[in-house]
């Protein structure tokens, strides 16, 4: 067994030195290895297709939410329609209950199931009544968790960019398979500027400057922009929810959009690249 006496002690300063990034099982991180000789041109082409597919699908969902799901349920026109309903129908004797002598508005407020008219207004009243019994707290909690989800996505993208910018620059990009159990002082020194830090054995030892720029353009910047766009429309969408069941479903749907990159990774990224990542 080799001696570990020569290995440096772990200190807070040493832990804070590097901007390391552990590669995750996602399309974003897998594209770090685009164009490398060990990956091959055919595999790189499939990875580019997977990256483009991921960007298009996520932007498509963001656009759907932005274009069709951000209508204010209590806009000025909607409130005007409800007011007209109350004056022209709700308190009109022609629509009153002749047996119990109650107006249509009274029947809606009592949430009577025998109503054959005013179903839309009864649904709005039911949703609002239920939402006022804890819906505000649930809305704040859902928005907080979703914002934390977006912050985690931005953090991963930022750490990847920082790791690329601080990695050792060279004419060629070098990926090594390191046996951590047999690492010596020379090996540890070579890994100080590596991109990947953690319990994995595939390490990016050095990287070409042009690759750093391209990876920022293809991965880091699009990932940050998509996360920011989704965060904006997502928080607004959750804030417009008036039903607790819709609120939970909407929050899960937004989280699903951020996980699309992992789904596409598992389905379309070639096994050769998955071996490097995993």
Explain the overall architecture.
- The protein has 278 residues and is mainly alpha-helical.
- It has helices at residues 12-15, 27-30, 41-68, 76-90, 104-109, 119-131, 135-166, 185-190, 209-239, 244-258, 260-268, 271-277; strands at 174-177, 202-206.
- Helix 3 (41-68) runs antiparallel to helix 11.
- It is elongated, with a radius of gyration of 28 Å.
- The protein starts with 11 loop residues before the first helix and ends with a helix.
Keywords:
single chain, 61% helix, 12 helices, 2 strands, mainly alpha, 278 residues, two-stranded antiparallel ribbon
User: Which sequence of strands runs across the widest sheet?
Assistant: 1-2
In helices, the fraction of residues equals 55-70%
Report the total helices: 12
Distance between the termini: 28 Å
Average of the residue pLDDT scores: 83
Secondary structure tally: strands: 2
Largest sheet, described in full?
2 strands, antiparallel
Which strand-content bin applies to the residues?
under 5%
- Low-pLDDT stretches: 180-200
Present the secondary structure layout:
Elements: H1 12-15, H2 27-30, H3 41-68, H4 76-90, H5 104-109, H6 119-131, H7 135-166, E1 174-177, H8 185-190, E2 202-206, H9 209-239, H10 244-258, H11 260-268, H12 271-277
Antiparallel strand pairs: 1-2
Helix pairs in contact: 3-9, 3-11, 7-9, 7-10, 9-10
């Amino acid at each position: 067994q080799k001696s570990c006496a020569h290995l440096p002690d772990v200190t807070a300063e040493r832990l804070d030195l590097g901007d390391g990034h552990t590669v995750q099982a996602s399309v974003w991180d897998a594209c770090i290895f685009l164009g490398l000789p060990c990956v091959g041109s055919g595999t790189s082409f499939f990875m580019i297709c997977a990256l483009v597919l991921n960007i298009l699908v996520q932007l498509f969902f963001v656009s759907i939410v932005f274009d069709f799901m951000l209508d204010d349920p209590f806009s000025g026109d909607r409130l005007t329609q409800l007011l007209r309903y109350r004056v022209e129908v709700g308190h009109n004797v022609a629509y009153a209950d002749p047996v119990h002598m109650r107006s249509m508005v009274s029947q809606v407020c009592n949430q009577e199931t025998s109503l054959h008219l005013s179903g839309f207004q009864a649904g709005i009243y039911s949703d609002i009544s239920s939402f006022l019994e804890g819906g505000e707290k649930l809305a704040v909690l859902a928005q907080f968790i979703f914002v934390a989800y977006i912050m985690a996505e931005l953090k991963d993208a930022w750490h990847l960019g920082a790791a690329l910018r601080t990695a050792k620059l060279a004419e060629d990009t070098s990926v090594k398979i390191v046996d951590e159990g047999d690492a010596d002082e020379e090996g540890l020194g070579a890994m100080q500027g590596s991109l990947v830090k953690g319990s994995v054995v595939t390490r990016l030892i050095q990287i070409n400057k042009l690759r750093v720029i391209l990876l920022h353009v293809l991965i880091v910047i699009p990932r940050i922009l998509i996360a920011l766009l989704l965060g904006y429309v997502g928080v607004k969408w959750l804030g417009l929810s008036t039903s607790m069941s819709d609120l939970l479903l909407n929050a899960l749907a937004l989280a699903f959009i951020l996980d699309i990159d992992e789904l596409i990774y598992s389905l379309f990224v070639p096994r050769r690249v998955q071996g490097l990542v995993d």
